[in-house]
Each structure stands twice: as structure tokens, then as C-alpha cells.
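Much of what follows relies on a compact textual record of a protein's fold. A record is reproduced here so that you can trace the correspondence yourselves:

. . .
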Amino acid sequence: MKRNYLRVIAALLAALMLTLPLASCGGNDDKVDTSPSPDTSVVPSEIPTPSPTPEYITEYIGTVYNVSSFLNVRSGPGTNYDKVGEAHAGDKYTVLEQNVGGSEWHKISFSGIEGYVHSDYLTIEAIQVEVTE
């Protein structure tokens, strides 16, 4: 029986000797760490601002055709108005108003002024133009 006690004591001593080095590995656990902890917070990335949806307007472009040399551009909607210039086949102009006053004359932007041409000599195409501020 004495031998059993010796074996138990020897086993306890062996276990104690094995655990002593492990107990000292942690350092001094009684002190509280007061150093600031690193900032591990996640900074949200900037949310991209969506681009504004472009706005469009319809513009009308008139192309001179059906003329042998040139077309008279008039100061008003009729042949009785003064001639303000000449437009040649293939020339393109912004159409400001179509069929002015129910007539067959279109008002165009001609060299910085308003001019009028007969509808027999102008084909009109609608185009979409982006509005810029």
C-alpha cells in the first residue's frame, strides 16, 4: 500500500513539474494593459454619387436641297420680304419654327439672324441634343 502512495505522489510531482514551465509563460497576469489598442474599426468607403441623368431636347436641323445654285433667305415668310442672304444645296441650319403662321415657310437661324426659307427647299430632321449647363 505504501508503494501505491509513492506512485501517486511520484505521478503528482511529475505532473507538477510539467505544468510549472507552462505557468510561467504567460508573464505577469496581474497587470492591466493600459496601452491604447490599435484602431481596428472599419472605415466605410465613400459611396459614389450617381451621375445625374442627362436631359435632352429635340432640335430641328434643316438641310437645303432642290436648288440648282442657291436659295434666297428672306427677312419674313414670303417672297415679298427682303433677301437677307443665300443658302446653298447641302447647307444646314437650325430650324427655329416650322410652317410659320400656317404657311409653307420655315424660320431658320441664318448667320446669327433669323431668316425664312420655303419648305420646298428644306428637309428637316429632328435630333436629340444633350442639355448642358
